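Title: [Solved] Glutathione S-transferase family protein 3D structure

Original question kept below for reference.
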Amino acid sequence: MKIYHAPRSRSLRVIWAAEELGVPYETTAASFARPDPEFLEANPAGTLPAMVDGEVVMTESVAIMQYLGTKHGPTPLVVEPGDARYPDYLQFLLFGEASLAAPLNALVGTKFMAPEDQKDNFTVKVITRSFHRRLALIERQLQRGDYMAGDAFTLADISVGYALGLADMLELGELPATVDAYGKRLTSRPAYQRALAVA
Ligand SMILES: N[C@@H](CCC(=O)N[C@@H](CS)C(=O)NCC(=O)O)C(=O)O
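Solution (posted by the thread starter after getting help):
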């Protein structure tokens, strides 16, 4: 399996999941700013990640994690339908990207590319406020267990954990104490540390 990767991009989710699962992979350095032809063949949209596994080509980080978890499972990282934790698992697996990380792409663009006098614009404020409001769902979940789907770490935590890391990189401000402690719990995992070290 080949993962097109840039440090701190969403390919980190895929590598983190592969490390947790113990699945072998290789990485190819890729840039969404300057995509080369090989990367564009795997992902014509030029977004990261892209994953090629034989005939399988995928470009959505959360979908790739679920693909790996089911292909190489059964694993405690994937909660199966029928398990009482499945609704929470599914919800937070998608929430980490759809509700948390995806809106932050606009902030990444603004932070790194906008002219100086437009960096603190109205949209930045709206998205930042919305991000913080959405953390209430994580806080409530952490009252029910240590992770998003109960007391066991799953792919849903990788999904949410990546978004918390992105918010940190964007300096979006302090997180509620329980969410902050949860984020630190995730990033102290050896598999995360190994994934982070991949260039
Ligand atoms: N929903 C996609 C989002 C992919 C995405 O936006 N990746 C970022 C890098 S972390 C990117 O390529 N941004 C450049 C762009 O949107 O053109 C996923 O989870 O994989």
